[in-house]
Write a structure and sequence with these properties.
By secondary structure, this protein is an alpha+beta fold. It has helices at residues 7-35, 41-44, 78-85, and strands at 49-52, 61-66, 69-75, 109-113, 124-127, 131-135, 140-143, 148-150, 162-166, 169-172. The protein has two domains: 1-38; 44-172, Rieske [2Fe-2S] iron-sulphur domain (Rieske Iron-sulfur Protein).
Length: 173
């Protein structure tokens, strides 16, 4: 039997069409399995962390967890606030005033992610040359405003999104 000239392109078209239809059908069957892997609403609720600050004393730093990351919350003394406000920010590697790093009306509270901006190590509280945090891994020193003052870290400690829900409660996230 001899084939006509038009059968080759027709066969190619049928193969491409059948393959495309099979791909769409497979995607329609697989989608419910992929969709069920999305996080549930109760897991998404963990995107915020509420913290009671009533037991934190002036000069004390606590560590809490938000989105599986450690967060430092420091209740600064009046002396620490005055010292940080007196710093000439033009000399800092990442210039930022102390006022820019706290919420208005809550100057005594500093909330920062507990991850060195150099390589993500967790700095030690109340240590270093500037009475803030010290990262012993590579020698970065942060002040009591979480600003990088010395060492290889390029940026200040990051401030997570947070808000005060009362004078003694904050919501991080």
């Amino acid at each position: 039997m001899s084939e006509g000239h038009g059968d080759g392109p027709r066969r190619d078209f049928l193969i491409i069409t059948a393959t495309a239809a099979s791909g769409v059908g497979a995607a329609a069957l697989v989608w419910p399995f992929i969709d069920q892997m999305n996080p549930s609403a109760d897991v998404l609720a963990l995107s915020t962390t509420e913290v009671d600050l009533s037991a934190v004393e002036p000069g004390q730093t606590i560590t809490v967890t938000w989105q599986k990351k450690p967060v430092f919350i420091r209740r600064r003394t009046e002396a620490e606030i005055a010292e940080e406000r007196a710093v000439d920010v033009s000399d800092l590697p990442d210039p930022q005033t102390d006022v820019e790093r706290v919420k208005e009306g809550h100057d005594e509270w500093l909330v920062v992610l507990a991850a060195c901006t150099h390589l993500g190590c967790i700095p030690k509280s109340d240590q270093g040359e500037y009475d803030g945090w010290f990262c012993p891994c590579h020698g970065s020193h942060y002040d009591a405003s979480g600003r990088i003052r010395k060492g290889p870290a390029p940026l200040n400690l990051e401030i997570p999104p947070y808000e005060f829900t009362s004078d003694t409660q904050i919501l991080i996230g």
